[in-house]
Amino acid sequence: xxPTYTPAHYALDxxxxxxxxxxxxxxxxxxxxxxxxxxIPFLFEWDQLTGLTGKVYGHLAAQNPQxxxxxxxxxxxxxxxxxxxxxxxxxxxxxxxxxxWNYSLVEINGTVQxxxxxxxxxxxxxxxxxxxxxxxxxxxxxxxxxVGTDSGVTTARQSNLAYEKQLSAAITGxxxxxxxxxxxxxxxxxxxxxxRQDVLQFLQQSERPQTVWQLMQAQGVLATEGAVT
Length: 229
What we know:
The chain contains seven helices and eight strands, in the order βαββββαββαααβαα. It is α+β, with helices and mostly antiparallel strands. Strands 1, 2, 3, 4, 5, 6, 7 and 8 form an eight-stranded antiparallel sheet that branches. The two termini are about 30 Å apart. The C terminus is likely disordered.
């Protein structure tokens, strides 16, 4: 599957920055060759501490029509879209300018393999654990306090195990071996440093939630010298 159109100055090739992006933004679309798609969370498992080779895990509801046509060995595309924001033409000090939209995404192509019930259940537990770890510490502490006593912990665990088994029968997990990965960060890299600062100031005032200007800083766009033509 051909990746989205990406001029060279919008392409991101740094594995570390891409992995940081996917650690923060891991909800996206599963697209199959029959043009069906599903919105689901992904779990990334990298082969090494650095680099972009590895696997992506996810799951589909058993009643999802997309699952009915999915077979081991099928080629699929995963699309993870990150922050996006409108950039008004009037925000630039130097005129004339045109309005645009800054955005970020990662596309992954690979081969899918369906998981059995046991591995689907293991995947559910891993996804829940990862999601819990991403919560603010005070929220994690609050969830622990809700369980309360040792007997409450035992009861909660037993209840969760029963629910997880029931859930794993209603979904099917899958794993995608990454064959190619394409990252596009359209973050005003084609503008002069002064114009990028104009965009930053505009987004700091207008963006809700404030994420694109933070991504511009994290990707080092604002530190880049000179204009990209």
